[in-house]
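2024-03-11 09:14:02 INFO worker-7 job=invfold-0412 stage=load source=structure_tokens
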């Protein structure tokens, strides 16, 4: 049977407020274990929670950035379940009355058409503690670190609008960019400040049924989200083809083996209204004040980059993924450089370097003016493209000016006709049989001579002028 996948996501985002959600403990889960705790987040008898204004503001910013309608009133519930990482036996979460509803994000589908994916609701909740399992050199034990207990989260629950792993991957990518622009979270899947759970079910293609779903957890990269969903679609297809029923349960993604494995049955605990946290009442004036804090969002910025700078849709998309990089692009492009050349060099050289070295642009000494100076020297034939790549690498780890690096490293391009003609004449004289080969129709020999000439000039020859002289000599 030909099946269609039905995919929805549940995404937890840790807000970067200074304190936890209901107390004044520092919101720094990575500190020494159990350093950031108090009677409230440890839930001692008599301790009363007090909602963080900053966390509420950051949560509201996130909701607005995802095109949600913030509710006039929302409230916290006690989500009851028992586990070692939950000190009070329940989690404060907005189960019945969430902060916001009815959002959406647009993605570019695999067929390059815009696809709107809906968000059912966004609610606030507190995070649980972290279990640390120690197994080496002793009897296995589990320890509890309560630094994370009570840190502020929002949970984003989508509608089951996604049909492919690509849809899910692009949704997470777009959502991460939107939320990073608001400054509400750094949204790092590697650090656990963005956690994605996927719900996957299958149905016969052409039907509208919502069948039994399976939840998949433990995906710590956007690529893992796509791979885990793809595997689960394949696994469920094989089960249905064998006549086996799909059972509601939770599975874990094993990124080393590229498989999902059964974790536990799905458990739904009771949720009852919490009497200790007052309901949240949002006024129009307060909401307008928060709305005024929203920066220009990625989709708005991409449209502007198309109009103002003449970028292609793909180039604009590359430039707006991170706010600091989009600001960097604009600053460089406004130094009277061709915007598309700036975007090309950032996309093919600068951004990959930062990614490979796990850095942001702020982690390096590179400034827009220094990068612009480098591109200006390339644009005016002071250096060639190969030299520019080497100079860029040095700029990313040095405070030297591009001009100093070019002079000290002898990267300045050779554009003297007489010097290049003499170099080419020597090469051709040493390879007469290859010259004859070229004249007999083997055009590939031109690349061979270009390589020899660039090597002989130690990479400093002007490639455009070199090719002109070579073409003239060979013909």
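2024-03-11 09:14:09 INFO worker-7 stage=emit residues=475
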């Amino acid at each position: 049977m030909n099946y269609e996948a039905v995919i929805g996501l549940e995404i937890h985002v840790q807000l970067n407020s200074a304190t936890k959600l209901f107390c004044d403990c520092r919101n720094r889960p990575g500190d020494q274990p159990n350093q950031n705790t108090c009677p409230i987040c440890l839930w001692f008898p008599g301790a009363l929670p007090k909602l963080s204004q900053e966390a509420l503001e950051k949560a509201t910013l996130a909701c607005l950035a995802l095109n949600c309608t913030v509710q006039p009133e929302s409230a916290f519930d006690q989500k009851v379940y028992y586990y070692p990482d939950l000190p009070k036996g329940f989690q404060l979460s907005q189960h019945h009355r969430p902060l916001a509803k009815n959002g959406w994000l647009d993605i570019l589908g695999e067929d390059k058409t815009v696809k709107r994916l809906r968000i059912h609701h966004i609610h606030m909740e507190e995070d649980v503690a972290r279990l640390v399992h120690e197994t080496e050199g002793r009897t296995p034990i589990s320890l509890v670190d309560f630094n994370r207990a009570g840190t502020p989260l929002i949970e984003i629950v989508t509608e089951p609008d996604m049909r492919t792993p690509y849809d899910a991957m692009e949704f997470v990518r777009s959502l991460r960019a939107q939320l990073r622009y608001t400054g509400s979270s750094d949204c790092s899947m590697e650090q656990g400040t963005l956690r994605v759970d996927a719900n996957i079910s299958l149905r016969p293609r052409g039907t509208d049924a919502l069948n039994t779903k399976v939840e998949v957890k433990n995906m710590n990269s956007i690529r893992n989200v796509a791979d885990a969903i793809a595997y689960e679609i394949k696994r469920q297809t094989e089960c249905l083809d064998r006549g086996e029923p799909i059972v509601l349960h939770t599975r874990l993604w094993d990124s080393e083996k590229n498989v999902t494995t059964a974790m536990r049955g799905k458990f739904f605990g009771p949720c009852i209204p919490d009497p200790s946290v007052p309901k949240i009442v949002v006024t129009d004036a307060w909401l307008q004040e928060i709305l005024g804090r929203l920066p220009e969002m990625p989709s708005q910025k991409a449209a502007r980059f198309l109009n103002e700078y003449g970028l292609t849709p793909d180039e604009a998309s590359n430039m707006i993924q991170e706010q600091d990089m989009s600001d960097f692009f604009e600053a460089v492009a406004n130094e009277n450089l061709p915007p598309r050349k700036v975007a090309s060099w950032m996309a093919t050289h600068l951004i990959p370097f930062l990614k490979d070295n796990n850095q942001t642009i702020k982690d390096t000494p590179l400034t827009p003016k220094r990068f612009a100076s480098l591109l200006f020297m390339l644009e005016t034939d002071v250096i060639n493209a190969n030299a520019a790549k080497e100079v860029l690498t040095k700029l990313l780890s040095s405070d030297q000016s591009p001009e100093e690096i070019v002079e000290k490293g002898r990267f300045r391009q050779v554009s003297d006709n007489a010097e290049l003609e003499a170099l080419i004449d020597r090469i051709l004289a040493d390879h007469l049989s290859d010259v004859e080969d070229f004249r007999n129709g083997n055009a590939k020999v031109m690349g061979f001579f270009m390589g020899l000439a660039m090597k002989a000039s130690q990479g400093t020859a002007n490639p455009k002028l070199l090719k002109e002289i070579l073409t003239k000599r060979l013909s």
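2024-03-11 09:14:09 INFO worker-7 stage=report msg="The chain has a mean pLDDT of 90."
2024-03-11 09:14:10 INFO worker-7 job finished
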